[in-house]
Design a protein that fits this description.
single chain; alpha+beta; Alpha-Beta Plaits
């Protein structure tokens, strides 16, 4: 059985962009999640304000930032292919115990997947929430940025419910 190897290294172990020219164009979909943990006082203040701070509407601004970031992933992460995203949906929900859940779902018809775009969108949306709330506390924590699922390529993936690590 051959040993798995990193896809972004050539035969001489130098970094390289993966050649996707021979791959089949299929619909590629990926969903990622980030969680933002707020101190209790910050969670209460944010909920009481209708999710607004002096900088503006927190969730709406985070959605815009996440979509913009997903569209520019190839400018941020070396060797990511520029992709003409067909859809980028970001959902943000404040949950119990001061946790905000950010989900980013991205799709495209292309030769390569959109996992990095979904992860980037979720992470930047979470960072935007931090930025807009940091005046209330610097004890805000961004955690659990992870891929939940991907489809359309050679290998699909779906994180098992409740799975901590894989």
């Amino acid at each position: 059985m051959p040993r798995p190897r990193l896809s972004h290294l050539d035969a001489s172990n130098r970094p390289t962009m993966v050649d996707v020219g021979a791959k089949e164009v299929t619909q590629r979909v990926a969903e990622a999640r980030a969680r933002v943990r707020l101190p209790p006082a910050v969670a209460r203040a944010l909920r009481a304000s209708g999710h607004r701070t002096s900088k503006g509407p927190v969730f709406d601004t985070a959605i815009l930032a996440g979509v913009m970031a997903a569209k520019r992933t190839h400018e941020l992460i070396p060797f990511c292919h520029p992709l003409p995203l067909e859809s980028c949906q970001i959902e943000i929900e404040q949950r119990a115990a001061g946790t905000i859940e950010v989900r980013c779902r991205v799709s495209v018809h292309h030769r390569t997947g959109v996992e990095m775009e979904a992860l980037t969108g979720a992470a930047v949306a979470a960072l935007t929430i931090y930025d807009m709330c940091k005046a209330l506390s610097h004890d805000i924590e961004i955690a659990e940025v992870r891929l939940l699922e991907k489809s359309g390529g050679r290998r699909g993936y779906r994180r098992a419910r409740g799975a901590r690590r894989s």
